[in-house]
Amino acid sequence: MTSGPKLVSILRQGSYLIASIHTALDDTQMDRFREDLIEQIGRHRSRGVVIDVAALDVLDSFGTRTLRTIGEVARLRGALTVVVGIQPDVALAMVALGMSTGAIATALDLEEGLEYLNGRLAGGAVSRPAGRVPPP
Questions:
Q1: Which of 29, 31, 41, 91 is deepest in the core (most CB within 10 A)?
Q2: Smallest Cα–Cα separation from 82: which of 64, 65, 101, 97?
Q3: Burial class (CB in 10 A: 0-12, 13-18, 19+), 14
Q4: CA 136 to CA 110: how far, in whole Å?
Q5: Is the distance from CB of 8 to CB of 17 less than 8 angstroms?
Q6: Could you tell me which residues come within 8 angstroms of residue 55 by beta carbon, excluding any fewer than 6 positions away?
Q7: CA nearest 37: which of 58, 54, 51, 22?
Q8: C-alpha dist (Å) from residue 24 to 4, 56, 128
């Protein structure tokens, strides 16, 4: 058993899961996060997932690919995913290195991410997001 602060938290809010990454994760920890989150989507029959990466000052290619994988698997299981809190320096580095979140929507913060899910899921059907949340 390890002690110390939690690296990731996954909280349930109604039909949504809110997953916050609190510190940089190595590849093994990122794989574990993916497995745990995907398992909880099924267990809670979640319709939406918010992944908060605001605490990260680096997001490498493996992390970015893992987020895309989570989003695609979640979609196949009936849940829509939005990534929130990408820091400006992280976004600049991702663009410079040609990395993206693919078809996963992004939002500025948790509040905007929840608004996005509420708007997209109000009609019932989950469809593929088209990138960043449009302004109201």
A1: 41
A2: 101
A3: exposed
A4: 16
A5: no
A6: 20, 21, 22, 23, 85
A7: 51
A8: 14, 6, 28
For residue 109, the model assigns a pLDDT of 97
Ordered by where they begin, the domains of the chain are: 8-121 (3.30.750.24)
At residue 126, what are phi and psi to the nearest 5 degrees?
-90, 130
Instruction: Please tell me the pTM assigned to this model.
Output: 0.85
**DSSP-assigned letters across all residues of the chain:** ---SS-SEEEEEETTEEEEEE-S---HHHHHHHHHHHHHHHHHHT-SEEEEE-TT-S---HHHHHHHHHHHHHHHHTT-EEEEE---HHHHHHHHHTT---TTSEEESSHHHHHHHHHHHHTTS------SSPPP-
Q: Which two three-digit tokens encode residue 12?
A: 């349930």
Q: What is the pLDDT of residues 50-95, one digit of tens each?
A: 999 999 998 999 999 999 999 999 999 999 999 999 999 999 999 9
